[in-house]
Specification:
Layout: E1 3-10, H1 15-25, E2 30-35, E3 40-41, E4 55-62, H2 67-76, E5 86-91, H3 96-102, E6 107-109, E7 113-116, E8 128-131, H4 144-155, E9 162-166, H5 172-179, E10 184-188, H6 192-204, E11 211-214, E12 225-231, H7 234-239, H8 241-246, E13 248-260, H9 264-269, E14 275-277, E15 281-283, E16 286-293
Parallel strand pairs: 7-8, 9-10, 9-12, 10-11, 12-13
Antiparallel strand pairs: 1-4, 1-5, 2-3, 2-4, 6-7, 13-16, 14-16, 15-16
Length: 295
Amino acid sequence: MPWIQIKLNATNENAEAIGDMLMDETGALSITFLDAKDTPVFEPLPGETRLWGDTDVLALYDAEIDTAAVLAQIQASPLLAKDFAYKVEQIEDKDWEREWMDNFHPMKFGERLWICPSWREIPDPTAVNVMLDPGLAFGTGTHPTTALCLQWLDSLDLAGKTVIDFGCGSGILAIAAIKLGAAKVVGIDIDPQALQASRDNAARNGVADQIEVYLPQNQPEGLVADVVVANILAGPLRELSPVIKSLMKPQGQLAMSGVLDVQAEGVADFYRDELDIDPIVEMQEWCRITGRKRS
């Protein structure tokens, strides 16, 4: 049968509360969060939402609902402004699991590296293949920020080097670094769920013995690496710049993403005191900032 979808514009501050309201008060059957760039944000466990940027909330309803009554309920909520933006659509009936799976294909990054979902055939068995299925922790290669970091890792000679993945999420960058030749990779994340996702994905790729993951408060004292990659957000990249720089060996290399084009120079300025910054690379309004730490 068909479905009715109502899309509301929200912010990272009120999106979760709006989602709860739609489920509890208006009878929504499911809630999906999308960031302002139309990138899916997988729905997390209660209390663990980490949405970034302005957020759209998509609510799915049975086609028999009284749409006008639902919109009136939504409008009466103090969570939304009186003139809130919304869109109502009829969605055809589909095999949603198959539809979701069909959206993910093997993707190539740089010259050697492929990210492949488990249900697809590997395009090039001789390439560097990372098997990774979309899941709760951020990072599948579909977003420009992840793609930019994967391309950068593919361009490096990582043989024998130590890599730190700062904000490791799903572990996609850590696993790619290992498969590209790194001797050891350390993943750091504030979310225990991300650490578990990184462990699981590393085991799935046969590299569990080469990756260590830590909450920031548990990471080894004096930890440094030849290569550091941080695919997080502009705010944390600015605020944590002393921490990130301290993780780099002299002449170590750094790549940062999760930064919009209008934010890139400002973020880079927080690192110029210790790093020689390369030209900034842009993809679909998102940027990668790279540099080398001076001796």
